[in-house]
Design a protein that fits this description.
By secondary structure, this protein is α/β, with parallel strands linked by helices. It has two domains: about 120 residues, Response regulator (Rossmann fold, 3-Layer(aba) Sandwich), CATH 3.40.50; about 100 residues, Arc Repressor Mutant, subunit A (Orthogonal Bundle). Helices cover about 40% and strands about 20% of the residues. The chain has a five-stranded parallel β-sheet, with helices on both faces. Helix 3 packs parallel to helix 4. The two termini are about 30 Å apart.
């Protein structure tokens, strides 16, 4: 009997101390880890065998990370992309998702949070796009189209920010994200005004989704100062 699929991933980072620290952590978690310092080296890895996931810095020698992500999305659409970068502006995050990022994390990032995001993403990798459940309770989130489809077939058009936010909630452990992580994701200050903006953004998102949710709460405030995604979502 075949065992569980072993995830093959590459860390594309030209700064050796960061690269080696991340590789060490991922190998301890049981991943099959490869390394590259440039787009050319990543291409050589892809010629040898497909990769399930690429952890990608944006500031690289030669071809930059956004261009590499766009190429991966075009030629290897089943390869998931985690951008791990020092670019923290809102426009940088938008460009990252537009280039093909499944998740965008800014440095410095705690290793535990990186591993939690990657573990959550492997739920989608192991099943693969053809193995998605046909459950009548599942919602389908399309990052490429910035839309979400209800179990009844209603398509709700989202902004790129809303789609990215739902994806970030989905990838969080137990689909619960604390306020600090939400502020970082939305590029908002950790101030009362920033927290109020988070509440407004989530309220508007609820207003779009809730009429199609048959009474089930879609996003709930969590008792530990965060928010929980209450929908069963498949990212397609």
């Amino acid at each position: 009997m075949n065992g569980p699929k072993k995830i093959r991933l590459a860390v594309l980072e030209d700064y050796e101390p960061h690269r080696e620290e991340l590789v060490h952590l991922l190998r301890l978690e049981g991943f099959d880890v490869f390394t590259a310092e440039s787009g050319e080296e990543l291409d050589q890895l892809l010629l040898q065998a497909p990769l399930d996931l690429v952890i990608l810095d944006l500031n690289l020698p030669g071809e930059d990370g956004l261009s590499i992500a766009a190429r991966l999305q075009k030629h290897y659409p089943e390869t998931r992309i985690v951008m791990l970068t020092g670019r923290a502006r809102g426009i940088d995050r938008v460009q990252g998702y537009e280039a093909g990022a499944d998740i965008y994390l800014t440095k410095p990032q705690r290793p535990r949070e990186i591993l939690a995001a990657i573990r959550s993403m492997t739920r989608r990798i192991v099943g693969g796009p053809r193995a998605l459940s046909d459950s009548s309770t599942s919602w389908r989130l399309s990052l490429r189209d910035s839309s979400i489809q209800s179990p009844q077939g209603d398509v709700i058009v989202l902004t790129r920010r809303d789609a990215g936010l739902l994806n970030r909630l989905y990838l969080a452990p137990h689909q619960i994200l604390d306020t600090a992580a939400l502020l970082e994701h939305l590029d908002l200050p950790s101030t009362p005004a920033g927290k109020s903006q988070v509440v407004r953004i989530l309220s508007r998102l609820r207003l779009k989704i809730q009429p199609h949710a048959s009474g089930t709460p879609c996003i709930k405030a969590h008792r530990r100062d965060g928010y929980a995604l209450c929908l069963e979502i498949q990212v397609v």
